[in-house]
Amino acid sequence: MWGGGSPPVVEVIESYKRVAREPGFLDRFYTRFMDRDADVRARFQGVDMARQRFVLSRAVTLLLQHASGVTHGVDGLRESAHHHGAEGMNIPAYMYDLWIDALVETVAEHDPRFTPDLDASWRTLLRREVAWFLEMTRTPDH
């Protein structure tokens, strides 16, 4: 399921494995994310949050796999990018920064092994992967 990757990538993957199945992790993330911005909260009005938690879990897994060199989930990420891009939900770029902050802060709250170095690894990895994801939202040949 997971590829190789540099030590920071492996550490982030191991951190995610520790928190991903923890009860309340995804709910806490969404509370934190929606509390950051009224427009974020408005975009989730009427959304099936049980399904959304599944979608988030899958997306984070695919992003981490991509970061580790696994490419079999790229088609799913392309579909998601298309859905989030101008032809879909048209998510503004600043919301991805809010998403990264909310996710890392929630991981920090739930991962007993979280450290400042792991925080930096999470943020570096997610910024790189989100930049790649955003590029796909702008590219017509997803």
Count of DSSP H/I helices: 7
Radius of gyration from the CA trace?
15 Å
Largest sheet: number of strands, sense, barrel closure: none
Question: What is the helical fraction, as a range of percent?
Answer: over 70%
What are the secondary-structure elements, in order, as H or E? Answer: HHHHHHH
Indicate the CATH class.
Answer: Mainly Alpha
Instruction: Quickly give the structural class.
Output: mainly alpha
CATH topology: Globin-like
Q: How many structurally independent domains?
A: 1
Describe the structure concisely:
This protein is an all-alpha fold.
Structure description:
By secondary structure, the chain is an all-alpha fold. It has a single domain, classed as Globin-like, CATH 1.10.490. 72% of the residues lie in helices and 0% in strands. It is built from seven helices and no strands. The chain has helices at 7-20, 25-35, 38-43, 49-67, 74-84, 93-110, 116-138. Helix 2 (25-35) packs across helix 6 (93-110) and helix 5 crosses helix 7 (116-138). The longest helix is centred in the last third of the chain and has 23 residues, at 116-138. The protein is globular. The protein starts with 6 loop residues before the first helix and ends with a helix. The model has no long low-confidence stretch (mean pLDDT 85).
